[in-house]
Amino acid sequence: MQSLSLFPLGSVLFPGGRMPLRIFEQRYLDLVRQCLKQDEDFGMVWITSGSEISQPEGMAPELAAVGTTARIVDWDALPNGLLGVTVEGGERFRLRASQPRADKLVIGEVELLPAPIAQPLPDSADSLLEVLVNLEHHPHVQRLGITTDHANAWEVCWTLAQLLPVEEDIKYRILACPTLEDTIELLDAALNELGGD
């Protein structure tokens, strides 16, 4: 069990995935400054109910049970005066408890989940890799600089889930899924839904 500063968000971050963020709240500006200075990770947790923006006392958002550690890999001052950062997902964790500090930054007690053993995609899931390879040629994906081991089915699934335009609750179910077989099944269903099958 360890303590981790949390960044609750309406989006799901996967291990190896990258996501641009615009930072404007003081608690998160301070968090970014600390993480850059100390070379620390923080935790990204999907908000299941509520708002990303700071709310009055007693209106804290509800957080998902599984999140991902995040590391800042790029940052820049945006023209609108906000701070732009790009984060990369690290390890999955289970959120056991959370508590806001006086400055409203949420601190979580987390248990890191063991990384799944790398294994190849089964032949029946080759279509997932084909979709990912097509997406990797998109300029937006290339700008993010995501690198994926195509020989590791978990990385293929997680990167694909990060990039697909599907609902965040589906992405969360994929993130929290404990088995590769079920992860592939969820991704297949998401792709079929996108394709209108």
From TrEMBL:
Keyword match Hydrolase: yes
Keywords noted in UniProt: Hydrolase, Protease
Lineage top rank: taxon: Bacteria
Protein species of origin: Candidatus Litorirhabdus singularis
Molecular function via GO: peptidase activity
Name of this protein: ATP-dependent protease
Any GO BP: proteolysis
Domain Lon N-terminal stretches: 1-195
